[in-house]
Automatic annotation (TrEMBL):
Protein name per UniProt: TetR family transcriptional regulator
Superkingdom field: Bacteria
Keywords: DNA-binding, Transcription, Transcription regulation
GO molecular function (one): DNA-binding transcription factor activity
Every HTH tetR-type domain range: 20-79
Gene3D superfamilies: Tetracycline Repressor, domain 2
Ranges annotated as DNA-binding: 42-61
């Protein structure tokens, strides 16, 4: 008798499909609930909206934190994809760069769980950070080649700018929603090649991507 003879029977295809549908429904409902209410929401509301029982929810996600991490990771990745595709399709390199910032930050500002994540964990995962850095680097190169970016501006500068405005989204989310747009516009104007004054030398520090 072989080990295969003792193996547990494979799950029926219908059961596997049901499990995948339940998982997808949980993630979709969680994305909506977390965006509206933040990470402190009761998971029973997520189960209710997804149409599954609490047992099913916990089989897929043993803790709320595990579910939140999965949802935020998917959302960040989707937002990066959408913003990047828009930027690539934009012929004007300057508009592609500024529009990327505006679109990404606008999406984040409308999601309460994302705003909270910047306060508790510093934002997205390392994988999303690395991908965002690479996209910004590509957009910066386009602007440099077109002669529209201020001399001396580095990818690190732009990456840190995105993080600083994300913090502005966090600190003004309740008291002055949307005020971050003003800060972003002021910051982006300072990146234009119209500004010819030399920039200060960058300080020595850790890589922002780490």
């Amino acid at each position: 008798m072989t080990l295969a003879d003792h193996a547990a029977p494979a799950p029926r295809p219908g059961r596997r499909a049901d499990a995948e549908r339940n998982r997808a429904a949980i993630i979709k409902a969680a994305g909506e609930v977390f965006a509206e209410c933040g990470g402190g929401v009761d998971v029973r509301e997520i189960a209710r909206r997804s149409g599954v029982g609490m047992g099913t929810l916990y089989r897929h996600f043993p803790t709320k934190d595990a579910l939140l991490v999965t949802v935020l990771e998917r959302q960040f990745d989707a937002w990066l994809t959408d913003a990047y595709q828009w930027a690539v399709a934009t012929e004007d390199p300057w508009r592609a760069l500024t529009g990327f910032f505006e679109q990404l930050l606008d999406t984040q500002a409308g999601n309460r769980a994302v705003v909270e994540s910047f306060a508790t964990t510093g934002g997205p995962s390392d994988a999303c950070v690395q991908r965002c850095y690479a996209i910004i680097d590509e957009l910066r190169t386009r602007c440099v080649d077109a002669g529209v970016l201020r001399s001396g501006v580095t990818t690190e500068d732009l990456f840190l700018l995105s993080g600083s405005v994300s913090q502005a989204v966090l600190t003004t989310a309740d008291s002055h929603p949307g005020k971050w747009r003003r800060l972003l516009r002021i910051s982006l104007d300072g990146l234009s090649s119209r500004n010819t004054e030399p920039l200060p030398e960058p300080g020595v520090g850790t890589d922002a991507r780490v």
